[in-house]
User: What shape does this take?
Amino acid sequence: MKKGHQSWEFYSSPTIISSGTVVGPDEGLGPLARHFDRIHGDLRLNQESWEKAERALLEEAATIAIGKVKLREEDVDFWIAGDLMNQIISSSFAARTLGIPYLGVFGACSTAMQSLALSGLLIESGAAKRILAGACSHRATAERQFRNPTEYGAQKPPTAQFTVTGAGVGLIVSSSDYDEIASRQPEIPPPIRVTGATIGRVVDMGVDDPYNMGAAMAPAAVDTIQAHLRDFGRTAEDYDVIFTGDLGNIGHIIAKELLNEQGVTFKSNAFMDCGMLIFDQQKQQVWSGGSGCGCVATTAYGYLLNEMRKGTWKRILVVATGALLSPVSYQQDETIPCIAHAVILEGGNV
Amino acid sequence: MKKGHQSWEFYSSPTIISSGTVVGPDEGLGPLARHFDRIHGDLRLNQESWEKAERALLEEAATIAIGKVKLREEDVDFWIAGDLMNQIISSSFAARTLGIPYLGVFGACSTAMQSLALSGLLIESGAAKRILAGACSHRATAERQFRNPTEYGAQKPPTAQFTVTGAGVGLIVSSSDYDEIASRQPEIPPPIRVTGATIGRVVDMGVDDPYNMGAAMAPAAVDTIQAHLRDFGRTAEDYDVIFTGDLGNIGHIIAKELLNEQGVTFKSNAFMDCGMLIFDQQKQQVWSGGSGCGCVATTAYGYLLNEMRKGTWKRILVVATGALLSPVSYQQDETIPCIAHAVILEGGNV
Assistant: This one.
């Protein structure tokens, strides 16, 4: 299973059989809207607090994912999830609601791919048959926890990013379980296989500006992409597209330049960023693009899976990036440690 | 590998070859002092802030664990760690220092056993050869993040617990790697095998008092112990001791009564709690006992391993409990969701 220095190759085709994506009003006005299962017009989801709204997003996404294949919570072995909230309360409270044995994880905005990588590992190793993996974020909870109360109306520099309000959850099953379920439910879409993953190292190039996460995270994305290609003996051309999580405009340019300098080049549209896809950057005021655990989670479990099922891409690499700072570390004059975890997704039979 | 509903059995004997434990002054005055590798007399470890002191504890424990067997950071595949700080900054910043591919986890005070369970899984499945797993906490960082600034001198009820200042890190390797390293270094102590684990569900019985974590967590410990015994087809008598993480006096009594009601009984000294062992509750003012991620981490990687190597116990179960609340969830009138993860440790050849 171990491949090279920091990667895993999965030979048994752990399979994403289903997913659930739930977003807020801004994401519902963006170009990926049709790929989301549910769009809430009310940022608060009729909940008492932003935090309860964020949890509701995650619980809904989980319920949708298992409902699509007519399973129930008790049919799932583990719930692997994380979020940006202090003590990842969205995921933990969702674990209480779901009642599924729970592994909480944290990789900031890289969490969705960290949990998917671990899910692939658990399925591959026979440690589980079915796993729900997910991540979420909410603009209003992130603003007040990481930045300022929104009531301040604090101005933002153009390098800032707009936290996605959304949750993405995947249901990952063994290949044989997919075949069994799909044989009973012919409406189930083609399988998407999780065929490998690369676990990132922390990279910190000294950026200390929490309003420029893209620049901080770009070197971590580059480090993980390089490690991945080295571990698998592949080039970027072996992937139809390499997607980063939420580098935004600024981080995307930096990452591309760094990779080019190191000899990694891309064909047109073969290197994209979920933070640049989820909003219409001409019409929506999102500065450098989307961010938050929910950005790559909803884009990957919505748009990317749909396009792969249609055959647009056969093999992609999703490299979710995370900035591992806290308001306290920032106040204590620390720079921003960043990380990226990558997962290979393949459509059809592999 | 999957065993029953929520457990894993490891057949290849993932092995704890080494560990590092570093504690603060209060733990150094407690009855387990001689089992810790390093005791700091200064709660701040000569650092600029409590948070940097906490990180230093974890980095020191990691460095000690790999130094004992003459390995270097680059010889280790993954760093799996977590802590109580917002965004688990202690573990993430330590990951930056160590430079090892990193999986951040969060299970509050259950984190040490969550990371050890995952380490067993990664070794068993061939996803890694060597893993550093750890957790830490610091009294002063926890006080100001979860409770009040210490300067307030707020009074505490007798149900409160005293956060352990300490970090515990284990180096987990494959059985063959242990044999190879030990053949070159005869001073390496006998192996401790990680032979199984049970991943907990979230249990919330409605306790909402953050100064009574023991009562909140006891039902989660009971749920996981029951699940473990059911999954493995064992009784409590199959373990020399079942250790809980940090229930303290109050939680220990509740857990024991709940288990007794369900027909699980223990011989004398066969059900103990790390939170009651780490301090001298007669002489030290720790209310109901120790708590924090560092409590079970330092007790297990120090005292428990040492006694197992001496042969005091042959097979134990360590059930680390965690309260998955945040100050925000408490302020929003939520009750406290709790979880417990259990790991089987066996001495000698199994």
